[in-house]
Write a structure and sequence with these properties.
40% of the residues lie in helices and 19% in strands. The protein is α/β, with parallel strands linked by helices. Strands 3-2-1-4-5-10-9-6-7-8 form a 10-stranded mixed sheet, sandwiched between helices. Strand 2, helix 3 and strand 3 form a beta-alpha-beta unit. The radius of gyration is 20 Å and the shape is elongated. 44% of the residues are buried. About 7% of the residues have low confidence.
Length: 294
């Protein structure tokens, strides 16, 4: 059985937000769990002084547009044979997403960190950050990249865009030796088994004197993954600033997914996983699975 019982996919109708969909398509096929797409919309601020009939008409129109869009996305994702549902909500996107995620246990939120802004749109970057800070659910975060034609970002993509092939060949698991950072391990194991990919435990030595200790720790992590039935060809020892080293590594590793917690051990010669995770999410071209450590 998959560790996740549902994939929750917030969209705002922009191509930037839709860049998460190819990964949703891949995960849905491999995890064999239902996909729930949501779109939240708000009323234009200029309607604050409008009469009730006008507000109702605009709300109905926006809801219809949201439903029509979600239906098209759902049809494209269903072609993979999975179960897909779609719901539109009027309201503030971040609370909508958080509340929706809480309805089904073990929901994985998959979200782009950038999206369209405008009169009736929400800025995906700020919404993703609010969700990350408030939810207890794991998140798979994709940094949306602007298209070559900026004006096309406001135009929804096509079914070919939404289910285009993407490669996930390995899972990079940053660890700092703390129990909090290690809470991501069950998630990495579950994903690696479902996707049938290898795991690369990764540690950062802040000085040459730490090399032996970090290497031994990574070797033990490799053995732990293998005992869980996951392929791991070895750990990866990095040096220097943790976030910079991880970003450089993922840039050189084709088709990797990063899995890490939002907190870790701090102190002398340690790196604070929370701040590292924040920088990796903001700057990584690879998808990042973020798990809140307790």
């Amino acid at each position: 059985m998959s560790m996740y019982q549902r994939l929750l996919v917030p969209l705002d109708g922009s191509r930037l937000a839709e860049q998460v969909l190819p990964y949703v398509h891949v995960l849905g096929n491999h995890l064999k769990c239902p996909i729930s797409i949501v779109r939240a919309f708000g009323l234009p601020y200029m309607l604050e002084s409008a009469d009730g009939a006008t507000i109702d008409r605009v709300s109905t129109d926006l809801r219809h547009q949201a439903r029509e869009y979600l239906n098209r996305v759902s049809m494209a994702l269903r072609d993979g044979g999975g179960t897909v549902s779609a719901t539109e909500y009027e309201g503030d996107p971040a609370p909508v997403i958080i509340n929706e995620a809480e309805k089904v246990p073990d929901t994985l939120i998959t979200i782009s960190t950038h999206g369209r802004s405008g009169v009736t749109r929400w800025v995906m970057g700020s919404v993703a950050e609010k969700v990350l800070n408030a939810t207890t659910n794991p998140l798979l975060m994709i940094r949306g990249k602007p298209t070559e034609d900026p004006s096309s970002s406001d135009i929804p993509g096509t079914s070919e865009d939404w289910v285009r092939p993407v490669d996930v060949n390995s899972i990079v698991v940053p660890l700092d030796g703390s129990p909090m950072a290690e809470q991501v391990i069950p998630h990495a194991v579950a994903l690696a088994k479902s996707l049938e990919v290898s795991v690369v435990p990764t540690g950062v030595a802040t000085s040459a004197s730490e090399d032996t200790r970090v290497s031994e720790y990574l070797n033990n992590a490799v053995q732990q993954f293998r005992q869980e039935g996951v392929t791991s060809e070895g750990g990866q020892l990095l040096h220097g600033d943790a976030a910079d080293a991880l970003l450089d590594m993922t840039q050189r590793t084709t088709g990797c997914l990063v899995a890490m917690t939002t907190r870790g051990r701090s102190g002398v010669q340690r790196w604070v996983m929370g701040s590292v995770t924040d920088r990796v999410v903001r700057h990584s071209d690879s998808p990042v699975l973020v798990v809140r450590a307790t």
